[in-house]
Amino acid sequence: MTIDPKDLAQIQTFAAISPTSVLNRQQPLRARYKDKPEAAWVFDLARTSDAQIPARHPLHGHAICGEGIPVSIPISVHQAVGGESDFPCPGELLAAAMASCLDTAIRMIANLKGIELKHLAVHVRLGVDVRGALMTGDNVPVGFQSGHMKVEIEAMDDLPETYLSALVAAAERSCVILQTLRAPPVVNVEFCRAPSAVKTR
Fold it and tell me: What's the start-to-end Cα distance of the chain, in Å?
């Protein structure tokens, strides 16, 4: 799989201007958050839409990631529960969030430590017994029951394995998605009537 040329060009502009220093980018942020802790709060957003895929269609959906520069993602229900698996399923998006969060954490900490990486790939494997979702198995929980992450990493310099292991461990500690899954927050679900339904009453 390759990145869309337009998106890749956006990323490459950072390398073309000058070497990126994570420290230089983070220092003013660290100072600001020290003086104003409330400024450190950010809220990542995503939503679904039925504008193109009607709500009555049971096998596909449409997720919109972010608000500033939103990205549309077609969603498919997994074949294991009666879907098509012709687009990413929600579980694969969770795996992607885990992989991308640890990947970028490793990249940033390597930059902070002055380590130039030659190769980096993060693989995520999540396992779920779908009988829980289908409510067909006694005492089978709903949700993933196993998870495995593998990091392939190589530095430009011939660094000892202990250095790379410490780098990955530091990134693991600062990986927001991974730490969220290990200590999950309380997530409230709010129900509300659609605006169109309210108007027609």
Answer: 48
Q: Where are the beta strands (DSSP E) in 49-176?
A: 60-65, 71-76, 117-127, 146-155
The model's pTM is 0.91
The DSSP code for 38 is: G
The greatest distance separating any two alpha carbons of the chain, rounded to the nearest whole angstrom, comes to: 70
The rounded distance, in Å, linking the Cα atoms of 13 and 15 is 5
Convert the pLDDT of each residue in 18-45 to its tens digit: 678 999 999 999 999 999 999 999 999 9
Helix count and strand count (H, E) for the chain: 7, 5
Cα 11–chain centre separation: 18
Please state, in angstroms and rounded to a whole number, the distance separating the CA atoms of residues 53 and 70.
Answer: 17
Q: Helix, strand, or coil here: 75?
A: strand
Return the H-helix or E-strand segment holding 51.
none
Which of 130, 132, 144, 137 has its CA nearest to residue 79? Answer: 130
Residue 117, SS3 per DSSP = strand
Q: Name the residue among 145, 93, 153, 147 with its Cα closest to residue 122.
A: 153
